[in-house]
Amino acid sequence: MIEIANKVYYVGVNDRNKSLFEGLWPLPYGVSYNSYLIDDDKVCLIDTVEVDFFVQFIENLHAVLGDRQIDYLVINHMEPDHSGSLALLKKYYPNIQVIGNKKTFDMMSGFYGIRENTIEVKNGETLELGHHTLQFFMTPMVHWPETMMTLSKGEASILFTGDAFGCFGALNGGFIDKDIDTEGYWLEMVRYYSNIVGKYGIPVQNALKKLAGIHIDYICSTHGPVWHENVEKVVNLYDRMSKYETDPGLVICYGTMYGNTERMAEQIARAASLAGVRNIRLYNVSKTHHSYILQDIFRFRGLIVGAPTYNAGLYHEMDVLLQEVANRDIKNHLIGWFGSYSWASKAVSAIGEWNENHLHFEQVGEPVEMKQALTPEIKEECARLGREMAAKLLAE
Question: Which ranges of the sequence are coiled-coil (predicted)?
């Protein structure tokens, strides 16, 4: 097993077989379920793993402990990919005491019927293990109501963060950022945050305020690498995302049936590029999984959306995407929109209603509406929308 620092061990597992995380989000690079073991006078386990990986998990624990017992299990997050091994774990370690908060135990009772051998902790309280002192921080709604973080203070300051600071992607041999190529994990962290945590910007900010001023040598999340060399970069990234801060750039996403609406999107993108915008992402909402589109909407300030009218309403996949954007309570964006129809107009007005009633983004330019096919006049209207968005982005 990998020792992180002064007898704190990584005992997690990799899942390279699951295709959709939570049945929703693609996992082209897999995902890790991270668990950590503190081997001290009192042995403490931090979170468990997905129950399907219990055999490997128990082998990892035995590799560190042999026949020694585990005294405590800290549950920072009750989601079953982290608490799922709890019932089986108690068969191997029947006297283990579970540490959590009141909401932890409400969920633990509901999920697993476990109510005994618990220790309830509150914000700021501590627990001595011997050479390590644990301190607990309540961080509700990052991203469930019971979530908390645990700081281990000893020779190194190690923060166990639950799903916060996590990312998609299995770990390929190494576990700590200093030992691996982390390049592929950064966008997967943004995709993880934007799709799973993104709605909870204010709770994330509240959590960061509780941690302000604390020196952290290692961040140990429940998904992704252990962060050591990049602790400051990881915290800053979460700070920016939870404030809905963006980079200058433009996401254009569209629905299309026969290519006519797509041609409008291409005209808009070309005009924005000629006007000086370099970061442009163009997405067909029916082809690209929405998790990647949401990832880039979180990253970039500008958004232009367009779709055809379908069944006297808005094209289905665009309707779904706008619902997903609204659900995440994204702020500080510019928006323009366009649409098309064959005999009855609805798409353009429907997108406008989404923005007025739910998104509340700053509108840029006039919406462009096309009947049936692209004409020279519609081309110019599309180009104007692209130029106006570019001017706004570049002026900022």
Answer: none
